[in-house]
């Protein structure tokens, strides 16, 4: 199963760990959308910055 991840809030002013997590997911700009396979690693990263993201199953 795949999930679609969209950055809906900026990482500016957030702790460095959250900025690094957003970058590791491959998100660059606001409203940038990516599709990733559901895995424990990806789901863990999404959980850490869920307040900045919008997640959908595809």
How would you explain this protein's 3D organization?
The chain has 58 residues and is an alpha+beta fold. It has one domain: Ribosomal Protein L30, Chain: A. It is built from two helices and three strands; from the N terminus they run βαβαβ. It has helices at 16-25, 40-48; strands at residues 2-7, 33-37, 53-57. The protein is globular and about 35 Å long.
Arithmetic mean of pLDDT: 97
CATH class: Alpha Beta
Structural class: alpha+beta
Fold-level CATH name: Ribosomal Protein L30, Chain: A
Any idea what the shape is? Answer: globular
Distance between the amino and carboxyl termini: 7 Å
* CATH H-tier superfamily: Ribosomal protein L30/L7
Percent in helix:
25-40%
The H/E string reads: EHEHE
CATH architecture: 2-Layer Sandwich
Spatial strand arrangement across the major sheet: 2-1-3
Rg value:
10 Å
Strand content: 25-35%
How many domains in all?
1
Provide keyphrases for this structure.
2 helices, Ribosomal Protein L30, Chain: A, three-stranded antiparallel beta sheet, alpha+beta, 58 residues
């Amino acid at each position: 199963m795949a999930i679609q991840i969209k950055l809906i809030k900026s990482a500016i002013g957030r702790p460095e760990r959250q900025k690094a997590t957003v970058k590791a997911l491959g998100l660059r700009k606001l409203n940038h959308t990516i599709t990733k396979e559901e895995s424990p690693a990806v789901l863990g990263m999404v959980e850490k910055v869920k307040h900045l993201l919008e997640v959908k199953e595809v």
